[in-house]
């Protein structure tokens, strides 16, 4: 891939949330390599264990709108926004604390929407912009015991799909990238809510063990990052890009099979008969 030149579009400025590890760090590194000026966010930039060379880190707490607004001001004119930061959450719907459900929506949806609102006027006035929502294939293929996470990722995609038409006449592209199973160590960071005496505990553990095994065999963060960069640099970004977990095959099956059949296939893949 040739290096970027000062006059090329890749001299633009990108803001990548959750850039301290995983997909966010891989996206930030890929964009630096393409010649972008990259701001990456972390709750506390001073604690980033392995900072990406060339990335300028900004503090961001997506649950705090004042923090979101301060981050947008610090970044200034942003041409590319990658809404990647969030929380992965599990639990039977009966046992999910509402405070936890609200937190996952603040982190995964409301903070991302507010940050998008703040950068869109500048993109629109300059006649160019790209907003990428990093979602999950679970939004398209829901899985038991992941209801709050599935709903949050589906909400992100809903905002993106509806907003596309609003901003596309101004040269702004909005898209969603849905990764499948990813080997980024997220299994250790996922928040879980299930009681010791839960009637769902045995089946829940079966699902989690299958989920962790799938993620251990999953694609790399760098492969997801390549898809994100492709969406950013596409002349006309598609509404949805999916990568990993045999995405072309499973999305083809989704078009052919009844929804109930697809839900059964997803359940069986995770040990749920």
From TrEMBL:
The keyword Oxidoreductase applies. Keywords: Oxidoreductase. It comes from the Bacteria. Gene3D superfamilies: NAD(P)-binding Rossmann-like Domain. Residues 12-180 form the Ketoreductase domain. Belongs to the short-chain dehydrogenases/reductases (SDR) family. This is Short-subunit dehydrogenase. It comes from Nocardiopsis terrae.
